[in-house]
Amino acid sequence: MSGVRAPFPQAPLLWAAGLALAATLVLGGCAVVVVGATVGAGTIVAMDRRSASVVQSDQGIEQKVGKAVADRWPAGSSGVHVNVTSYGGKVLLTGEVPTQTIRDEIEKIARSTQYVEAVTNELVVGPETLIAARTRDTYITSKVKARLIEAQQVDAKNIVVVTERGVVYLMGLVSPTEGDAAAQVAASTSDVVRVVKLFEYRT
């Protein structure tokens, strides 16, 4: 399935825990990259560290950016596949686009959207990923979430996990210790190619 899609709400924790029991997780190593670390607030799960108004604002950002992209480059015919994740006004763009020009234009759309404070553009110029690859990414996300619950080193509901092409992006309002612990859990999860930390750190 191609086109623009906003990130799905995180599955209930009991479901993730059940998945962890059902899956045999083979540990592997990968690099951890820090893209940004600033003071702020946010996560995607209910009962997280964001205020209700910030949660509502993030949802609005995802919808507005997603709709603007979909209206400009219709799904199924444009070669554009974009995921929009907003966390405390910080927007992550992932997916694939056919040209650098379109990549830049989508970033411009995100930056000009009300309440957006910053944009991390991880869009790849190239062909859209196949359904099998997206299914694998979804499975990786589920494994990382389940392992965060199992590890009990950080409150998993405060961590947003986004996976694209095997690269795991971590977002959340956490302490430096929590952020490092979450990144190590993700990096040691099987099939993870790389981990990018986009946390906002509590002081």
Provide the residue-averaged pLDDT: 83
The helix/strand class is alpha/beta
- Stretches where pLDDT falls below 50 for ≥5 residues? 5-29, 34-46
The main β sheet shows up as: 5 strands, mixed
Secondary-structure element pattern, one letter each? EHEHEEHEEHEEEHEE
Q: Count every beta strand, where a strand is a DSSP E run of 2 or more residues.
A: 11
Topology:
Elements: E1 3-5, H1 13-22, E2 31-34, H2 52-72, E3 81-87, E4 90-97, H3 100-111, E5 118-121, E6 124-125, H4 131-151, E7 160-164, E8 167-171, E9 173-174, H5 176-187, E10 194-197, E11 200-201
Parallel strand pairs: 1-3, 2-10, 4-5, 4-6, 8-10, 9-11
Antiparallel strand pairs: 3-4, 7-8
Helix pairs in contact: 1-4
3D architecture notes:
Helix 1 packs across helix 4 (131-151). The longest helix is centred in the N-terminal third of the chain and has 21 residues, at 52-72. The chain has helices at residues 13-22, 52-72, 100-111, 131-151, 176-187; strands at residues 3-5, 31-34, 81-87, 90-97, 118-121, 124-125, 160-164, 167-171, 173-174, 194-197, 200-201. It contains 5 helices and 11 strands. With 203 residues, it is of the alpha/beta class. The chain has one domain (3-17, 26-201). Helix content is 37%, strand content 23%.
